[in-house]
Write a structure and sequence with these properties.
Number of helices: 8
Radius of gyration: 17 Å
Structural class: alpha/beta
Distance between the termini: 23 Å
CATH class: Alpha Beta
CATH topology: Rossmann fold
Oligomer: single chain
């Protein structure tokens, strides 16, 4: 499938609302803090129905109190494949249409010196939450997204990526938290391009975005890393991928903030992606 190339430098940075659309519905994972919370508040204020995911019911309640009844809380722990599958079922039971899925939730570098952590299913935690969860959730929701066409999938990635051997996707050798995070973001890019090749752009577009570098979010502060940008930069870049009519058929792309970017070469390499798909299918056996 030919991917649509977007001349971003020739486009206005102003966010646009699709005035021809009926009420829109978006699912945002990781909606109780940082980028996800601000996206939920902004989109709810603009008339969207927001399926807001989080792990903490009370924090989701606080979000609903702030953003209003357009927010519909969905509770799930993305470190559990069973709960990820349950999140997809909750979404399908909550709405008859899903215009946009934003895979935003993530686990960061962790505090300095932290050892390898695992998910409920025994997978390395960052791979589990930042990669396996978006893969499973997205694939479970493809029927709903397709039925709501034209729809969009926005994967919140990072330019901070490192190559790895897909056979060691669970990162059992030479572990470092920051490296695990960066491996998960390369894997997410590769999945983005795979799925974009599968789905017609006029039905569902799939793109990956580095919203901004080291925003002052909880994961960045936990790692004791100094922020390099503000939250508004990331919000603006992400809202553009969600709402801009000019990106209606842009798919299979990696965006670095408001501009076209590039993932690592491995994300475009057919051999790497084939190996990654095979290993991913093994780890998600019984759920896909």
């Amino acid at each position: 499938m030919d991917r649509v190339k977007v001349g971003m430098r020739n486009r206005s940075p102003r966010l646009e609302r699709d005035v021809n659309a009926e009420a829109r519905t978006v699912l945002i994972t990781g909606s109780t803090s940082g980028l996800g919370r601000e996206l939920a508040v902004r989109l709810a204020a603009d008339g969207w129905t927001v399926l807001a995911h989080g792990r903490d019911r009370d924090r989701l309640g606080d979000l609903r109190d702030e953003a209003g009844p357009a927010v519909r809380p969905l509770v799930a722990d993305l470190a559990s494949l069973k709960e990820v599958a349950g999140l997809a079922a909750q979404a399908a039971a909550t709405t008859e249409r899903l215009d946009v899925l934003v895979n935003n939730a993530g686990v960061g570098f962790g505090p300095p010196g932290q050892g390898r952590q695992t998910s409920e299913d025994g997978h390395e935690l960052r791979i589990a939450v930042n990669y396996l969860a978006p893969v499973l959730l997205t694939r479970r929701l493809i029927p709903l997204l397709t039925a709501s066409a034209p729809a969009r999938v926005v994967n919140v990635g990072s330019v901070g990526q490192v190559p790895f051997d897909p056979a060691d996707l669970d990162f059992e050798r030479g572990y470092e938290g920051i490296t695990a995070y960066r491996r998960s973001k390369l894997a997410l890019s590769a999945f983005t391009f795979d799925l974009a090749d599968e789905l017609p752009a006029h039905t569902v577009t799939v793109n990956c975005l580095h919203p901004a570098s080291l925003m002052p979010t909880a994961m960045v502060l936990e790692s004791q890393t100094a922020p390099l940008s503000n939250l508004e930069d990331g919000v603006t870049s992400t809202l553009r991928l969600i709402t801009d009519p000019g990106l209606a058929e842009a798919t299979g792309e990696f965006f670095n903030g408001p501009r076209p970017g590039r993932s690592l070469p491995e994300a475009y390499d057919p051999g790497f992606r084939t190996e990654l798909r095979a290993r991913t299918a093994e780890l998600l056996h019984g759920y896909l």
